[in-house]
Amino acid sequence: MADRVRREFADPPEHTAHRKLIAGAMSAPAIASWEPRIRQTAQRFVDRLAARPQVEFVTEFAAPYTMTVIADILGLAADMVPRMLYWTRGFNSMIGNPLTDEEVAELNDTAAEPLSRDELLMVLQLAMVGGSDTSSTGLSRMMEYLCDEPGEWDRLRAEPELVPAFIEELLRTESPLQGLFRVATRDVELGGRKIAKGETLWLSLAAANRDPEVFENADEKRLSRHNVVSRYLMFGGGPHLCPGAALTRLELRVVLEMLVAKLSAVERVSPPADRIKSFMFYGPGSLPVSFTA
C-alpha cells in the first residue's frame, strides 16, 4: 500500500506512466461524450429531490449523485454506489482498509492486458476519492452558501449563464480540497524557513486560493473575476494537475443549472451542522434543506 501511494505522488517519468492509466478516460473528448449521461443522472436526482419536502443534501443528494457519475464512467452497476460511498467515507479510512482480492476481481475487467491489482486500486482510489469526494463536498458547500445567501439563488435563476463563474469562485474561496502533501526533492529556503530534502510538507491550496497578491479583495466572492481558472489552485497545477478537473466542473455545472431552473428557492431546515471531520476536505457534514418548486 505504501509503495502504491508513493507512486501516486511521484514525479515524471514514473508519474507520467501511471497518469496514462486514466488519461484517456479523462480527456476532453471523453468528458464531452459523457455529458448526455451525466445530464440523465442529474435529472433523475433533481426530479426525486423536487418531489420531497425535505432532503439531507450531503448524504442523500450530493454524495450519491457524484458517485453515481463515477460508477457510470468506471462501468460499474448503480447498485455498487452505496458500497463505493462506504469505501470513500474518509480518505484515511479507505487507505487503511484496502479492498479484498474478491472485491478487486469483481471490479476488474477482461481486457487483453488487465491492470495489475495495485494499478487498479490506484485508479479506483483516485476516481472515487478525487472524483467523488471533491465534487460532492464542493456541491454541498455551494448549496450551504446558497441557503445563507438566498439572493444569489435568485441571481442564478435570473442569469443561469453565471453558473460556471459561480462554481469557479466558490471552488476558489471555499476550497473543498484544502491541501495536499508533498515531499521536498532538495534543500531549499522558503519564506525564511529552511526545508530539508525529504521533508514532508502540507501545501494549503485554500490559502493560495485567497492570496491577496493574486486576487484583488481575495476574500470576496466576485463572479466578474477574469482568468480565475488559470490562477487558482483548487485542482493543483503542473504535471499533477487533477486529471478529473473538467469532469468535476461538468458535474457541478449540469446539476446546478438544473436545480436553479427547476426550483425557486432553497433554505435550511435546521441550524448549521458540524463540518466534515477531515484534514483534506472542507464542507458541511450534513445539510438538511427544503426546496420550493
Task: Write a structural description.
The chain is mainly alpha-helical and 293 residues long. The chain has one domain: Cytochrome P450 (Cytochrome p450), CATH 1.10.630.10. It is built from twelve helices and seven strands. The strands form three sheets. The chain has a three-stranded antiparallel sheet. A two-stranded antiparallel ribbon has the order 2-5. Strands 3-4 form a two-stranded antiparallel ribbon. A hairpin with a 2-residue loop joins strand 3 (188-190) and strand 4 (193-195). The radius of gyration is 20 Å and the shape is globular. The model is unreliable at 1-6 and 92-98 (pLDDT under 50).
Short structural description:
It is built from twelve helices and seven strands. Strand 3 (188-190) and strand 4 form a beta hairpin.
Largest sheet: 3 strands, antiparallel
Estimated radius of gyration: 20 Å
The number of distinct structural domains comes to: 1
Q: Which range does the strand content fall in? A: 5-15%
Instruction: Tell how many strands the DSSP assignment holds.
Output: 7
Q: Report the span from N to C terminus.
A: 48 Å
Strand order of the largest sheet: 1-7-6
What do the pLDDT scores average to? 83
CATH homologous superfamily descriptor: Cytochrome P450
CATH architecture: Orthogonal Bundle
Anisotropy-based shape: globular
